[in-house]
Amino acid sequence: MAVAQVHCSKVAVRAAEECVQLHGGIGMTWEHPAHLALKRAKSGRIALGSAGRHQDAIAALVGLPAPG
């Protein structure tokens, strides 16, 4: 799960930000659900832990020093 979280937390937020950017002003209004995807992606990243924390956990499991 930690490997998936390292990749997906960054990608989900980036994809949602690009979606809002693509839709322009309507992407941040109640008329389009793009803003909800961005809010969910950012809150998920916070709730499930940052990518850095998961990278540290993976490094500890395989016996490597934590990435700097």
Describe the structure in brief:
The chain has 68 residues and is an all-alpha fold.
Question: Which key phrases capture this entry?
Answer:
single chain, 68 residues, mainly alpha, 72% helix, elongated
Please describe what this structure looks like.
About 10% of the residues are buried. About 70% of the residues lie in helices and about 0% in strands. It has three helices and no strands. By secondary structure, the protein is mainly α. The mean pLDDT is about 85. The longest helix is centred in the first third of the chain and has 22 residues. Helix 1 runs antiparallel to helix 2 and helix 1 packs antiparallel against helix 3.
